[in-house]
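ok so for the tutorial part 2 we go from a plain amino acid sequence to predicted structure tokens. step 1 is just haveing the sequence, like this:
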Amino acid sequence: MEESLEIVDFAVGASIFNVKAGLQTWMEKTRNSKPTGRFGIGGYYNMLSPEPILEAMEKEVRHPTIYPEVNGWLRAREAVAARMERHYRVKVDPDTEVCLGCGGREILFVLLRSLLKAARKRKPGARKVIVSDPCYGGQYYSIIEAGGIPVCISSGPNHDYFGGAIEYINENGEEVVAVFVDGIHNPTGVCAQAKQMTAVAEAAASARVVVISDEVYQELIHNGDPIPSMAQLVPLQDGLIAIVRSGSKLYAMSRDRIGDLVASSAIVKDYVDERKIINYGPPSIIQAGYAAALNLCDDSIAELSARIAKRAEMIYRGFVEAGWINFPKPPRAGIFQLAPVPDAFSDALTFCSKAAEEYGLEIWPAAAFGHKASQTLRHEVRIPYVEHEDNLPCAFSTMKNFLSEHASSVS
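step 2 — the prediction. this is what the tokens look like for a chain of 411 residues:
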């Protein structure tokens, strides 16, 4: 099984990318053009948080200022536990099995630091963390910055990440500290099946490898069956499951940087001990909003999912009518999807570069999200379904002009 033991630059067309610098480079590239349509960063929600969140935050801002607890308010942790039981029928202890953090990215970083530190005692020399390729950049950055070694395994519609992860664990389990599992994968949009999640968890348990279940998008289901939480499949008390969630996507709180970790008491204790070195808990104003979201905003998740599904349908129809004939139909879940580039272009880098430079269209190549993706996803781009509906007609007309020009130049 091929593995990535360091950040290595790789060539994509005429440019150089790596998982970290690739995203930064592409961000700068698209910022230098006049935007006429954004289909790059997934955080452009252009939505207000639900009213109960805003009301709770406004009320809290008038309270006296105190330093927040490292692991988060008890009432916020109780809200996490209550929602886990209400939505997933899983009981967790808010005192010992729940912790809050400043968004998913920070939680992942602190979690990986604590897991790698704990592994020194039970698995001397183990530093490897299995992650998909392409992947959410925060996963890869966190492995590197926490002192781990990423093992990149190809993922996407035509690649079996779960099978590859299991094979690697079976062959190299003593070297592996953790493995990532994404319920709804960013950036490909692929949805995990319960049997795949269970199979990875079983292989991980046999090698004492911690499963980091990234469930940030788990509940954004537009059609079809729900995707289970890892906590429904494997007992938290086994000590080898860590679930990471965020308010950014489910409650449109991306500006507020809030999320939670649900894990065994041993993992949470190590996490809190590590977090003490870095920072206090999330700001109390934000925790008040998150507690309100968890307690009062279940309906808003369905409304958000419906809105994303509507946007996805608009983007599908708009791009097809603009001449992007091979654009895929909307996904069944999440806010991302891979799309093959229009037939007039040889690869994704050429398509995205010309779209940005000539027409101000911000579209990101899938290869910017991984190492192996430079070969496995040369012809795909990542489409997030978060751009505001009011901005879409301009993007469609611009894309139509762009594709028309290049179609005529090819002919």
